[in-house]
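pasting for ref
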Amino acid sequence: MLRLRCAAYSGFPVRLAPAFATGAGWKDTIGQATISVYLPDTVTPENVSLAGKSVEGLPIAPQPAGYTTENNVIRWQFTDLEPTAEDNIFVDVLEPGRYRSLLQARAGALNTPDSADAQLALANAIQNAVMVVKTVGQHGGGKNLAEGANNAYRRSLELAPKRAEIYSQYANWLLRTGGWISLMRDGTCPPELCDLVSRGLEAFPNNPELIKIDEKIRMMQEDHSSSATQAALNQKTTAQVVLDQTATAQVVLTQTAFAQATRQALNATPMPTQTILPSPSPGVTPDKAKETLAPAVPVNAPGGFGAGWQVILLLGLIAVVLLLVRLRRNAT
């Protein structure tokens, strides 16, 4: 049996990680093994990450699976085990001093529900208890803790609406728990955050902390707007380049078709040849000899004037197509 105790650690979160895999060096398997982790306080979702995943996507519940909890003990039972690295024990524990401060502040807020200072003390204790691995998502009680801080801040504002530090502290908390992510992602200021800062500046227009927070929010929104505008311009430029390339390709294809048609027309039209007439026979006039030896070619006969007109019409049609393509390109 292996027992581990979590005492008063100076930092948080505390990760207990005994190297259970070293048991693989034993001969044969481990018949039976019990691993017990003893905590200073009763195990709860607030002082131990019992569900969810870390920001890296890793499970933050005690590992490996199959553990049980009883009061302040987390326990594993193994039978016929040849341990590997996957059998090592991992437990993320909130530093006991912070957890006890949270319990004390919560009790104070319950005992004096009309005290703005008690509500602020609870909100601050929750902030100190929310860990990186918990954040404010579904991570071992982090979401419930964060909502408890929101409620404490709201209650403190109801009780003391003329205290500027409550506005600034709550605004910084809202920025930390999602405001910055929203502003960086799409330039959106969460409604509760923007309303809070607006009300705070209306009541305390010269408060330096509120002015600083408002300037940060506006700067983030302006940066996102500039980035979005540049991205839109880049998309428009890319689209124009594609359109120009398409138009250029059309012109090249049309010019190629024009060249091919010209060559075909030239090949289909016989080149003029010189006809050498023999000397006329005695008693035959020169004109009569021409009619006999070189008969006239009909206009519509192949190689006559009709083929020439066909070439001219084809070239004219291609010229019109080229003109239309260029006009369309200039219009875009």
